[in-house]
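Hi V.,

Quick status before I head out on leave. The structure for the redesign project is tokenized and pasted below; the design run finished overnight.
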């Protein structure tokens, strides 16, 4: 299909018994592979096994230590994450942080970005909460509204300027002006060249837990499902 990268997330992918086999297969195919983890299982033996199989590890982080522990339901969650970061640094594996944005967490973005930079991250990714899986049942009230999204967009621009050349800032939002300039970002255009492969037409496809392959993001409408594996 023409794709050059694959990302594994969860849940916690490091507890999936087949992860290493999947990563080895991805490497054999020449794919860049990423893994998103909560960072609590990054002991030296596991990192040694992952070293040559992942391009980058993304560590999920919620907020500052006490709030992170509260959200994770564990008084040791942040300390275990910090231990994992130290092990990653020793192992020489590239890593970044990914933060799931809620209506209340935007106020912590400056602290989170500085924490990521101070710990040697190459990426800080801000990803809006998606109403999918557990979030669909328990987190609907935490969805960020338009006002919060505008604040986050401005904060991400400021962070980009602050960490230019040191850490990549990614915010998973699209500004209205970008859509006006290039509307094909958000809707399909007529495809006259049938020789083009899937990766040229859809930059991202997602394999969901039930076997559905959908475009763009988790939870995308099943009316646009590509296939069921």
């Amino acid at each position: 299909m023409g794709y050059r990268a694959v990302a594994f997330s969860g849940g916690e992918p490091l507890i999936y018994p087949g992860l290493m086999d999947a990563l080895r297969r991805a490497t054999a195919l020449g794919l860049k592979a990423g893994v998103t983890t909560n960072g609590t299982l990054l002991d030296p033996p596991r990192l040694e096994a992952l070293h040559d199989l992942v391009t980058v590890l993304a560590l999920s982080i919620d907020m500052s230590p006490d709030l992170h522990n509260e959200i994770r339901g564990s008084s040791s969650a942040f300390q275990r994450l910090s231990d994992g970061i130290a092990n990653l640094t020793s192992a020489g594996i590239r890593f970044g942080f990914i933060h799931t944005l809620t209506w209340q967490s935007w106020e912590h973005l400056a602290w989170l970005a500085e924490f990521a930079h101070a710990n040697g991250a190459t990426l800080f990714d801000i990803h809006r909460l998606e109403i999918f899986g557990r979030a669909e049942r328990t987190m609907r009230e935490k969805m960020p509204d338009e006002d919060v999204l505008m604040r986050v967009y401005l904060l991400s621009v400021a962070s980009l300027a602050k960490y230019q050349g040191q850490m990549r800032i990614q915010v998973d939002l699209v500004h209205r002006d970008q859509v006006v300039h290039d509307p094909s970002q958000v809707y399909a255009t007529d495809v006259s060249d049938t020789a083009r492969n899937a990766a040229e037409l859809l930059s991202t496809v997602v394999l969901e837990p039930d076997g559905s392959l959908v475009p763009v993001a988790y939870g995308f409408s099943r009316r646009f499902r590509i296939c069921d594996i």
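Above is the designed sequence. The radius of gyration is 18 Å.

G. will cover questions while I'm gone.

Best,
W.
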